Amino acid sequence: MRYYPVFLDLAHQPCVVLGDGKLAMEKAAALREAGAEVRVIPARNYKQGDLAGARLVFDASDDPAINRQSWEEAEAAGILINVVDRTAQCRFIAPAIVRRDPVLIAISTSGESPFLASALRARLERWLGREWGPFTELVGRIRRGLRERGVPIAEQTKVYRRLVRSELRELLRSGRGQEAEVLAASLARPGDHGGRVALVGAGPGDSDLITVKARDLLADADFVLHDALISPETLALCGPGAILEPVGKRGGGDSTGQDEITDRMIELARSGHFVVRLKGGDPFVFGRGGEELRDLIDAGIDVVVVPGVSSAVAAASSIGVPVTLRGVASSVAITTATGSDWPGRIRDLARASDTLVVLMCRANLAEVAAHVATAVGGSRPAAVVSKATWRDQRSVEGSIADIAQLADQAVIEAPATLIVGEVVGAVAAHILQAVAL
Ligand SMILES: C[S@@+](CC[C@H](N)C(=O)[O-])C[C@H]1O[C@@H](n2cnc3c(N)ncnc32)[C@H](O)[C@@H]1O
Q: Which of 168, 206, 325, 426 is deepest in the core (most CB within 10 A)?
């Protein structure tokens, strides 16, 4: 690494900007904003000795002769200089800045690409909302109070953790400053505080399909109790201090009982921890999230629910099949091939809906397909998508009469979702027709 990052305190410090173009004016304005005493010297007026006493110099003259002279003068006097656009003549480089005062984030590509530095800045600005400014001020105020009262560091850290994981930033973002103050004051009281549980949807697999809110919660969680099918990339979004506890079942293997999972969440929350219960897809679509929510509320635990992208919809969209399509399908039924009543339910839903989506169907796909065919005829288009949005996603399409055999031939594995209806192939068929015309 060539550069050593620092933030300079230039308040009331003499600084010089050489040049009279737009860039020179920008540099002078930025220095003044930081409280520096800035002297701007037009390029034609610069003479040896003008830099004497300066802490920092920008040469924005864009004149090679002046550049050489200013560099030599600054080097001889030990003054920090930046000759704009000449990396070899820079004792410091100016980073791209994300401002969330008092938070200041500096980005540097070590001069490799100012374009990338500003692209990164734009990303960070979107990620780090304006509320981070007032939030940091609030935390700073609380910190000063705790220090004045001599609260031990370990207690202080617990307070900061509570503040970071709370809904404070959301309140500040939506302009509810007063409520934020009240909440912050209660969280800042040392002592025992109850924890929280977040029931969070992880989406169908691809870690990029998780919500921004879920990402934030994972970054702050003390414990993450997760299903078996959560990808390593998604689990990598957990903060470095998070304790991961796998609790899901996979292909009939060992799993933690539902009561055990709920008891564990209650136990952790009661001892003050922030727990994320991370579930595949959406927590409330055949994920037992509803039962968990009910039991947590009954136990008096503070709980939030964060929806996720359900495989019930993502499986179809991942192969370009819209579950509804104007003129083709205006109703969707989502069910599973589990429970003793599934054959009758699947036949009824196949008749009643334009598109039928069946989860947890891989083990008895042949039977499921046979029941659907009995209800709506064997020629209805169908698709099976396995591991939708994962890197090893696979799918087959065909008639419902043939689909189970096609899935076996293609070695389609669980988790897999069956989609039945005229929507399968409809968009591709339209495209083909358009080409034929
Ligand atoms: C217990 S259910 C949970 C569904 C989950 N809550 C959701 O909203 O996606 C598990 C079933 O979801 C379906 N499934 C989950 N992830 C999938 C994926 N990536 N591709 C296809 N189907 C998937 C399979 O049918 C699997 O058997």
A: 168
